[in-house]
Amino acid sequence: MSMTETAVAATDFEKCADRSLYFTLSLYVSGDRVEAALGQRLAPSIVRGFQANYRASQRLRNGVEPLLNDIADRERLNKVDDFLLDTLCPAAGEFLEVTVPDKIEWMTEGRRFTATPPGLNKTRTVRVRRFWYTHANGAVGYHLSFRYNYDHTPGDFFFLSLMQKLAAPKEFEIKGTVPEGKEIRPTDAQTGIAPLDAIKVKGAGGRPANFWHFVRDTFNADAADLFSKLKEYCPPAKPPKNPVPAFDNLVAEAPFIEVPGLIMPVSRLLFFFEDKTFFRRLLPEIDPATEKPAPRSLMVQEGCYAAYQTELAGCEVPAVNGVPQFELAKPFWKWVADRPDYDQYTDEQIETARK
Q1: Distance from C-alpha of 166 to C-alpha of 194, rounded to nearest angstrom
Q2: How far apart are CA 212 and CA 164, in angstroms?
Q3: Which of 6, 71, 166, 353 is 20 to 30 Å from 213 at the Cα level?
Q4: Dihedrals φ, ψ of 58, to 5°?
Q5: What's the CA gap between 291 and 5, in Å, rounded?
Q6: C-alpha distances out from residue 246 to 90, 122, 218, Å
Q7: How far is residue 16's CA from residue 140's CA, in Å, rounded to a whole number?
Q8: DSSP notation for 73-100
């Protein structure tokens, strides 16, 4: 389905379909930084009245806050002091074309792997929505929620993993020489870190950009709109110390210890899968004799991984500078797809047999 067709078919609300991944990237802006850009503390009393008339915030509140109330005690003295606020993102979401390279290389536990899973570099359409969440202490969260409908293929599974590495690029390193004392940030033109540089996203009518460049640019547009409207709604008594609400001076950041020299925005990444096959193969089923779930240990056992270790050993190539090297090329992926040592049932056949 093309981006245009996807956009036409989209509605404001959507059902959670099988083989869907939802992942939300959340960025933190402290209360002090918000105050410096706004000229006053972002008190709940301001947001309570502002929410109702700011873009589609009221609709967002009506759709999402009942879910929040189901899982958290949000009341303090019979009041709720945190709020959802809309952004410039269209109500039906924005559709991004995402491309990744056809080969990825990483290092873990002292071993370097190079993988070329088939179909990895195809262009994929990912849906994204954005929203703000204000906290009682004046801090603000900026959230980008992505959705991707995937297939059960090595290329798609590696793609999902690479999406996670955009926020936490563990197992990757900075290529090239980094000058003493220089810090690398994901919003730099080039970082030397494979997933941060090679993965490209493109919105409707836009040009391909690095993921964090897209995040920075959307944040800047959304923050400029939000803060200007907040100042109109409740003019500050004093001029802001930092009047330009921008990604570089609002979003908190910290060293990423797994990659020395890298400074990452302080963020949280939440993954949610909807996948009947995946969970049915992992979760214990009811034993008809006892009418109780089978022991979880029966579902995934040590032997499940033994064949992969054997096959990986056959992918080893000569070491480089003492580092073991493994190339996961076409023969490995054919074995993964065929698994001659395993059952030949498709997901659809297994689903039919369970009915």
Answers
A1: 10
A2: 13
A3: 6
A4: -65, -40
A5: 47
A6: 21, 33, 10
A7: 27
A8: --EETTEE--EEE--SS-TT-EEEEEE-
**Confidence at 5, pLDDT banded by 50, 70, 90:** very low
Which letter does DSSP use for residue 125 in this model? E
Q: Indicate the pairing of strand 83-85 with strand 292-293.
A: unpaired
57-82 residues labelled b (16+ CB within 10 A) or e (exposed):
beebbeeeeeeeeeeeeeeeeeeebb
Residue 311: pLDDT over 60? yes
User: Would you say 230 and 38 are in contact if contact means Cβ atoms under 8 Å apart?
Assistant: yes
Report yes or no: 218 and 144 within 8 Å, Cβ to Cβ: yes
Instruction: Give the bridge partners for 143, in sequence order.
Output: 26, 131
Under 8 Å between Cβ of 96 and 202: yes
Q: Is the model's pLDDT at 122 over the cut of 80?
A: yes
Q: Which residues pair with 127 in a beta bridge?
A: 95, 147
Please count the other Cβ atoms lying within 10 Å of the Cβ belonging to residue 186.
24
> What is the C-alpha separation between 96 and 86, in angstroms, rounded?
19
Higher pLDDT, 6 or 104: 104
Residue 7 to residue 307: CA distance in whole angstroms: 43
Give the pairing of strands 286-287 and 292-293: antiparallel
Q: Quick: pLDDT tens for 239-272.
A: 999 999 999 999 999 999 999 999 999 999 998 9
Banded model confidence at residue 12, pLDDT cuts 50, 70, 90: low
Q: Provide the angle, in degrees to the nearest 10, between the axes of the packed helices 44-51 and 57-71.
A: 120
In sequence order, what E strands does 197-300 have?
A: 200-202, 209-210, 253-255, 263-265, 267-274, 286-287, 292-293
CA 19 to chain centre: 16
Helical axes 31-38 vs 211-233, angle rounded to 10°: 60
C-alpha dist (Å) from residue 23 to 127, 155, 209, 332:
11, 18, 20, 29
Per-residue model confidence as pLDDT tens digits over 171-192: 999 987 777 778 999 999 999 9
Q: Which pair of structure tokens corresponds to residue 17?
A: 């379909």
Q: What is the pTM of this model?
A: 0.88
| Element containing residue 58 per DSSP (H, E) | helix 57-71
